[in-house]
Specification:
The longest helix is centred in the N-terminal third of the chain and has 25 residues. About 40% of the residues are buried. This protein has about 750 residues and is of the alpha/beta class. α19 crosses α20 and α26 packs across α28. The chain has four domains: about 160 residues, Beta-Lactamase, CATH 3.30.450; about 110 residues, 3-Layer(bba) Sandwich (Glucose Oxidase, domain 1); about 100 residues, PtsI, HPr-binding domain (Enzyme I, Chain A, domain 2, Orthogonal Bundle), CATH 1.10.274.10; about 300 residues, Alpha-Beta Barrel (TIM Barrel), CATH 3.20.20. Strands 15, 16, 17, 18, 19, 20, 21, 22 and 23 form a nine-stranded mixed β-sheet that branches. Strands 7-14-13-9-10-11-12-8 form an eight-stranded mixed β-sheet. A six-stranded antiparallel β-sheet has the order 3-2-1-6-5-4, sandwiched between helices. Bound molecules: phosphoenolpyruvate (PEP) and magnesium ion (MG).
């Protein structure tokens, strides 16, 4: 018969505190914990499994299993019952483990003797660090009290500062946060920087997981919650003049901050002996686990609010973390798990580099980092956990690597690299006023991409001949509601003035796909990159597009205006968009606004279909800009945001280059000016090959203009074409190897 039991969590926690107060290293402490738990819960076995890396769990301490299995037995996350606890981040409680789905027999541990199993995840802020397991011989269904007690012990284990030594890769028992660390990620922006870590969301260090006196803890919690409520009220008052959405968010915050349920759950955890901080973290872990399971985006947002509120509360309780408005130190390299464009902009241009655990090359944070020309590395796995504020850090945006707490030899080599880059910059500055004319006399137009007012000074410093692409999404993305026409017109007018007569191609709003406006939300789409986006939204939501077109016209105030429509897949879309513009122009004139002295209307070629549009499209279109980022993803059917497939297909692949050649030839036939404004235009070798394929205009981020111009001015186009043609004839898939070899010889 199943035995019912229930352990007193409070007593267990008190004994745990005494154990942790004893001297001893990490291993001894884990051993003591397993002894204590198995004794208190009257189970034959208690084991601690910790994650060695993303995939693997290792038995790190046990009472009851064979001691020789410790640090030997490993399993994959998801494998066996223990692996399943880690994967699902939720407990498994079974009377008959061998008969339970997913059970894996591990003979080296001797666990075949045990029938019942209760496993709970050891997690900190939603991240599973390991699994805590008890097992017993008798069939026994563990009671809710047991589960709760084991979860509480797991919380305390998760806070043990020695834990990092077990979860590091290969260097167990070395103190974490001290050793040098190399992160291999991906490059989102070239360049090199040396500086000190500034954590966007600093890890809060909790030194007192178990409290001495619940009353004292409750008082601390209550004081912090009072302060939190005041802060939220202040925020709410400050948002009185803001838009409705922002106010709604703040109201939701206030509701949570005053929620009795939330506060009583926190107090209940304190009652059993947890400190106020750990009680908050325990709630936060539960919220995060719920968040990952909730399919409804609205509800997920609300849970996110609650999570954010817990973060604020933790900062108040511990006095740690960044307060908004803090000054950014001089040599700060921002390190974050991920960051949105608005948050990044708050730091301002003082940031010297950016390193993210997630992120993507096409995200808006990346576009901003590019505009600021700071080196940026993405996919630096676990760096936000490993780095501490103020740690020395080297960011190598060319290689996509980061050195944290580097050795001196690496610092020396890195400084040499920075000096070389600075010398190259001087070389580029010297040719700033020169044109990009090849050795055999072909001149290529080099323009820059922009999206913020802050980009415009680069027109002068880079020597760009105009703005080939002005992305207009950022002003829409950085706010909670639709911007006003007058605000947009003011901004565009400032762009006109800053450009001092140089041409600017304003692109109409390109939202959808990865750029989602909270106030203009589409239905959930299975394939947003191929969904309702860009011109498709513009033509369906005519009011928004009309408003933006009016803003362009008013900003131009009689000056020549260049507009381009994004993501045109077929002639009809261009014709309809142009007809809308004509109508708006007509109305503006009727209303007495100054009409631009000249209007040029272009299309972005971002889907292969447009290259095969009817001749009349090429006749009607004043200019074409190849959006290579999108064009490439649709040409190869490879998501530009998906690191796994993105790199598989080289831009210098014969198929893609030949396609570019055909587009250039077709535009030439109709004398339609064509340029390339995707990120590849800013890479010297790619730029050279595009030019060899017939393109005569390129638009890129400002920092690339020097290197591309330098490359073109040293190139004989005729020769380059011969090399590419020979490589194409050879049957190689990409011409890169041949071109790189030729450049080296040269
Ligand atoms: C492109 O697709 O190449 C492009 C320039 O547009 P965006 O990157 O903004 O989609
Ligand atoms: Mg695009």
């Amino acid at each position: 018969m199943a035995k019912k039991s229930g352990v007193n969590s409070r007593t267990l926690l008190q004994r745990l505190r005494d154990t942790l107060a004893e001297d001893g290293d990490g291993q001894e402490r884990l051993d003591h914990i397993t002894q204590l738990v198995s004794e208190s819960m009257e189970t034959e076995v208690c084991s601690i499994y910790l994650r060695r890396d993303r995939q693997t769990l290792e038995l790190c301490a046990t009472e009851g299993l064979k001691p020789e299995a410790v640090h030997q037995t490993r399993m994959r996350v998801g494998e066996g019952l223990v692996g399943r606890v880690a994967k699902q981040a939720s407990p498994i409680n079974t009377e008959n483990a061998p008969q339970t789905k997913g059970f894996r027999y591990m003979p080296e541990t001797g666990e075949e003797l045990f029938s019942s199993l209760l496993g709970v995840p050891i997690q900190r802020l939603g991240e599973v660090l390991g699994v805590l397991v008890v097992q017993s011989k008798d069939p026994r269904k563990f009671a809710d009290d047991d589960i709760y007690a084991l979860e509480v012990v797991a919380m305390v284990i998760a806070e043990m500062k020695e834990l990092g030594a077990f979860t590091g890769e290969g260097e167990a028992m070395t103190a974490p946060h001290q050793r040098a660390h190399l992160f291999k990620g991906g490059s989102a922006q070239e360049g090199a920087a040396i500086g000190a870590v500034l954590l966007h969301d600093p890890k809060i260090i909790i030194t007192n997981p178990i409290a001495d006196d619940p009353d004292v803890e409750k008082k601390r919690l209550s004081a912090a919650i009072d302060q939190l409520r005041l802060n939220v009220d202040d925020l709410l008052n400050a948002s009185r003049n803001a838009d409705k959405e922002q106010q709604e968010v703040m109201e939701a915050y206030r509701m949570f901050a005053n929620s009795r349920g939330w506060v009583s759950r926190l107090e209940a955890s304190i009652d059993i002996g947890l400190s106020a901080e750990v009680a908050v973290e325990k709630e936060q872990s539960a919220t995060r686990a719920r968040m990952s399971r909730v399919p409804d985006p609205y509800l997920r947002e609300r849970l996110h609010d609650l999570d954010d509120l817990s973060n604020r509360l933790l900062r108040l309780l511990t006095g740690q973390g960044r307060a908004t408005g803090d000054k950014v130190p001089d040599n700060a390299i921002l390190v974050a798990s991920n960051i949105g464009p608005a948050e990044l902009l708050e730091y301002g241009k003082n940031i010297k580099g950016l390193v993210l655990e997630n992120g993507s090359v096409g995200s808006h944070a990346t576009i901003i980092a590019r505009a600021w020309a700071i080196p940026m590395v993405i996919h630096a796995e676990n760096i936000a956990r490993e780095a501490l504020n103020g740690d020395e850090i080297l960011v190598d945006g060319d290689q996509g690597i980061v050195h944290l707490r580097p050795d001196e030899s690496i610092v020396g080599a890195f400084k040499d690299k920075i000096a070389m880059l600075a010398a190259a910059q001087q070389k580029y500055a010297a040719i700033r006023a020169e044109r990009a004319t090849t050795l055999d006399g072909t001149t290529i137009g080099l323009q820059m991409n922009a999206g913020l007012m802050a980009d415009l000074p680069s027109l002068e410093s880079s020597g760009a001949e105009g703005v080939g692409l002005f992305r207009t999404e950022l002003q829409f993305l950085l706010r909670n509601s639709m911007p006003k026409r007058s605000d947009l017109a003011d901004l565009y007018a400032r762009v006109f003035s800053a450009a001092k007569g140089l041409p600017v191609n304003f692109r109409t709003l390109d939202i959808g796909s990865d750029k989602v406006l909270p106030y203009l939300r589409a239905e959930d789409e299975p394939n947003p990159a191929m969904g309702w986006r860009a011109i498709r939204v513009g033509l369906d939501k005519k009011g928004v597009m009309r408003m933006q077109l009016q803003a362009f016209i008013r900003a131009a105030s009689g000056r020549p205006l260049r507009i381009m429509f994004p993501f045109i897949a077929q002639f009809d879309e261009f014709r309809d968009a142009k007809a809308m513009l004509d109508k708006v122009l007509h109305n503006e004139e009727r209303l007495g606004h100054a009409i631009p002295s000249d209007v040029k209307v272009g299309a972005m070629l971002e889907t292969p279909s447009l290259a095969f549009a009817p001749d009349q499209f090429f006749e009607m279109c004043d200019f074409i800009s190849i959006g290579g980022n999108d064009l490439k993803q649709f040409f190869y059917a490879a998501d530009r945001e998906n690191e796994r497939v993105r790199r598989r297909y080289d831009t210098l692949n014969v198929s893609f280059l030949t396609f570019i050649e055909q587009i250039a030839a077709r535009c030439d036939l109709f004398e339609t000016p064509v340029s390339f404004c995707g990120e590849d235009a800013g890479r010297p070798i790619e730029a050279l090959c595009f030019v060899a394929m017939g393109l005569r205009n390129l638009s890129m981020r400002p920092a690339s203009i020097g290197p591309v111009k330098h490359m073109l001015r040293k190139t004989n186009l005729e020769e380059a074409r011969d090399v590419i043609n020979a490589a194409r004839a050879s049957g190689e898939q990409s011409v890169r190897r041949a071109v790189v070899e030729w450049l080296k010889e040269r």
